[in-house]
UniProtKB/TrEMBL annotation:
It comes from the Bacteria. Gene3D superfamilies: dip2346 domain like, Domain of unknown function (DUF1846), C-terminal subdomain. NCBIfam families: PRK13663.1. This is ATP-dependent Zn protease.
Amino acid sequence: MQTGFDNDRYIEMQASHIRERIAQFGGKLYLEFGGKLFDDYHASRVLPGFEPDSKARMLAQLADQAEVVFAICANDIERNRRRSDIGVTYDEDVLRLMDVFRSMGLAIGGVVITRFSGQPKAEAYQAHLEQLGIPVYRHYPIEGYPTSVDLIVSDEGFGKNEYVKTERPLVVVTAPGPGSGKLAVCLSQLYNEHLRGTESGYAKFETFPVWNLPLKHPVNVAYEAATTDLDDDNVIDPFHLEAYGEVTVNYNRDVDTFPVLRAMMEKIFGRSAYQSPTDMGVNMVGNCISDDAVCQEAGKSEVVRRFYTMSERIARTGQGEGELDKLRLLMREVGVDENHDPAHVAALLKEEVTGLPAAAMVLPDGSLVTGKTSELLGAASSLLLNALKRVAGVAKRTYVVSDEALAPISHLKTAHLHSRNPRLHTDETLIALSISSATNPEAERVISATSELKGCDAYFSVIISPTDEAIYRKLGINVCCEPKFERRTFYHR
């Protein structure tokens, strides 16, 4: 796949810039990490070359200076809120991320349970963490937050929160998802550090929107497409324009809350170190784009993917029409429509010809491959096998998995596991392929080619099963589905 982003340069430049910001505040910086610190697949899609763990790898360069503090809202614990991308609950994800950071040599400073007001599950979660030896702190709701500055910046506001004990110059405040209270944790710590005579500062690390790209650059528009459910909009930062005469991009929530944030800093320190929301950021992503045309095309493709994701959500839940309307406008802004990828048209045409669900994919060399529904394979399995054979250089008509290998699995599913669907899902097909590779060298070649499909887009004429979608995502293949189900039933799993 084409590359448009210099990942190595980014890691070096970003780490260096954060060190400069630590020094600016006398050696203690609370860095709010917006978005995903790990598993940032959105960034890797719109900035080809950006690795999903780039930000975590960058922090690993600062491991001797950094510790990580997690914020998680008590209400999210109470209602078992889940990450939509990987499906785990927020409380589980905190533990998962801790293991990842510890494996990279980063110290864990603890967990802050925000907006705590006696929620039973939050209390149980705290007890569990403390049994594991993890420090836990409670931060409480503050009436009038964030506008009642005099109350917030007082002993009855931030002063009621438990002080998070940190030891290192850089304290990274992150969370499993939005709305966890990262900013409030940072500001509370600034207040309590100031009371203890410790000089400290605050900065924000948001990958998107990219402040030094144009407002309507497809990479920035793709961010709007990814956050339609949050009602976020990219805007020109008016504070930065007024202070410096420079046009930069931020998003509406940061611009709207900046006057309050600046007032809080002035209340704590007597002055604000920042004149604009852009000033607060430390993001160097825009400086590491190596091929703008590649990233523009990637941004356009991401807007279209978000359109199909929302269309599928509407088919499943009946909700999201407003977001879909906004996505149509965003597609128009970057000059694309739902047929932007030729694989979409090819999948629909294949279904029309065969009368059954079908699929298509554009491979890294630009060639198109399709898959159809057969007696033993679903469209997802057929497409995956055909794509793997193509990139492995195996002839299309070569049987790398024989019917003799597939039929027993199908029989097991229907006769013994009582499945109504005799066709193999992609995970079952890959198992059959791996078994065949013990005696078939070409099957082994096909298996070895799985990494070559990373970054490709697969289009399906119907909504595929969660099992098939999960396998495709594990292989790094992006999935888009027509918003219709294969069967006309009310319940779909």
